[in-house]
Amino acid sequence: MVLRDYYSENPKISEKTEALSAPAVTIANPFDRFGAQVLDLAVVFFPLFGLLSAPLKKAMTESAHYGNWQTVGTLAVEFLLVFFIVYLLSQLLSRMIFKNSFGKKVMGLKVVNLWTGRDATTWENMVRSSYVFLEFLFLGLPFLLVLTNKKYRGLHDQLTDTMVVNLRGELPPALNVRPLRWMLRFSAFVGVASVFAFGIHLGGVLLQQTDPQAAFQMSQGDEDEDASASCEKTGSLEKAMALVASGYMDTSCLKDEVDTDFVAGAQPTPLDYLAKSFVYVDHPDLSDQYLKKVCEVKADSAACVLAEFISSWSDGDKSQVEEILEKAKDYREPYLSLWALRYYQQMGLYRKSLEFAQGLTKNKQFGIYVRAQVLKSKYFLNDVAGSDRDLASMEKDSESPVVSDTMAWSCLKKISKSCENTSDSFCRRMMEADPSDYFYQPRILLSQIRMNECQGNEVDPNSYAKSGQPRAWKEFIYALDKEKKGDMKSAWSLYAEVARLESTPDYLRAEAIRRMSLHPDISDISALKDLASNIETYENRHEAAQDVRKVYRRLHLESIDGSENGGGRLPASEDGGAR
Q1: Where are the domains of the chain?
Q2: Most buried of 66, 229, 382, 562, CB within 10 angstroms?
């Protein structure tokens, strides 16, 4: 008996039944999948990865900067491990929140099992994501396999028996993604072109001798010298101003001390306005306005004298500065005396510096700074024995970093005169010190480098480098490394950069110029002269000028003349010049 084919006789019913039995999903096209992947990376993965990998990136650039390639290799492996963990974590978080990856949720896609058609399990998705990570390691080339089969299954799909489908037949997309799809399709072509262009550029770079200095400078950005000193509460604006003058407190710390005096109804004092001018030192116009108010409030005050002194000093009017400092002797405010002391030290007027230091050495907060300036003045006034006695006394009385820094200063001055002075007691102590204990006191590290060179010992610049050091010191170490490797031209250029850097302390500028002057065959005399003239402190400017003069002599040029060579000329000192 033959059964009647009911559906063949009712074509409308047949079409309806076929429509109902048709699959509710369609295979996702490659462009939608690419768009979903871009969204996953941009919205979920890269923010997490950038946050968690930042310490590794910084460590890698610094290690490359110093040529520690073994460390770079280790960090690269750790970098890939973090990439893998973060990628899996981002996928897991997306599925916990959206029941799908973020990109696929937006594009209306999902991953299903190839044989059952059911949603892929969490385990299958994690294994699938692991394979995606491996495909990234091969520059994404395995992704191209989606174009080789009708179901657009990539290598990761084929290894996990999954496929990606579009939910348009089952559930309408949550939003109209048609414009987004076209944008992402266009971005696919732009992405391929960009990768191709980057590959050409990378190939050109690899054919040259790579230099990690550029990467280091990019990562560092505008990183400055040392971090500012911690802002301690002094309870007195006068004390805070004295700490600023001695270098123990940053000017920004004055803000908390002085803001309470500028509340509604308060009557700010001349010192309040002076402190405000210090706070806004990076905003010259505003700082000058506060500076003018100081003497308007009270002309007969120590604050007004200091305001006039600062204005004249910044204008370069030395005769006016001298007149103002004579008036300063009538006031006993420590902050005023400290600024006078600082000025005279910088100008090389050591006898006057000693006059203003009287009565300040016993202060608990800044006395150690004053004592250091006093012994330096004695040294430059030819009382080396007295200077050494004061330094030995400081060592017994205090464990402040100022003491060790001053010992390094004393040692550098002595070995600059003769390498025979490495037997000096302070030099021996510096030599015995463990560099790892003084990574953030560059002058001590410099004294060890100079002593090793005097004694003919091999110097490894990288052993004096560590993350977090001042930028100027890092640049100096990089230049020193080039010098030790025999690349004198690169070293010369890098030392010049150290000398030009605003954050470089004057003693390091002078050392950079000294090392540049050791190679007269490649020295640019005019550049050396300009660099030396930019040093502010007399003692270091004097040493740098002497080194420039040596280059002239070596090249049989005429001695430095003030009219022709400006800043290269040896600076004059009222007290007879630096030693």
Answers
A1: 26-210, 233-398, 469-579
A2: 66
CB 525 within 8 A of CB 564: no
Q: Give the lowest-confidence range in 176-190, 402-416, 555-569.
A: 555-569
* Integer Cα distance of 393 and 413 in angstroms: 19
Indicate the length of the chain as a whole number.
579
CB atoms within 10 A of CB 33: 22
Q: What is the pLDDT of residues 320-378, one digit of tens each?
A: 888 888 888 788 788 888 888 888 888 899 998 888 888 787 777 788 889 999 999 99
Q: In Å, what is the CA distance from 164 to each residue of 30, 36, 111, 118, 199?
A: 10, 11, 5, 11, 30
Averaged pLDDT for residues 57-78: 74
CA distance 101 to 126: 11
Burial tier of 115 (Cβ tally within 10 Å: 0-12, 13-18, 19+): exposed
Q: HSE-up of 116 (CA within 13 Å, CB side)? A: 7
pLDDT in tens, 180-228: 556 655 655 666 666 566 656 545 544 443 343 333 333 333 333 333 3
Report CA 226 to chain centroid distance, whole Å: 10
Place of tokens 């006034």: 381
In angstroms, the Cα distances linking 367 to 60, 240, 355 are: 42, 14, 15
Question: Could you tell me which residues are beta bridge partners of residue 253?
Answer: none
Q: Is domain 233-398 classified as CATH 1.25.10?
A: no
65's tokens: 């900067």
Contact 459, 483 (CB under 8 A): no
Residue 299 has pLDDT above 80, yes or no: yes
111, containing H or E segment: strand 109-113
Q: Mean pLDDT across the stretch 512-533?
A: 82
- Bridge-partner residues for 113, per DSSP? 162
Residue 99: φ, ψ to 5°: 60, 20
Residue 106 has pLDDT above 90, yes or no: no
Bridge partners for 27 per DSSP: 165
Rounded to two decimals, the pTM is 0.57
Note whether 199 and 224 are within 8 A (CB): no
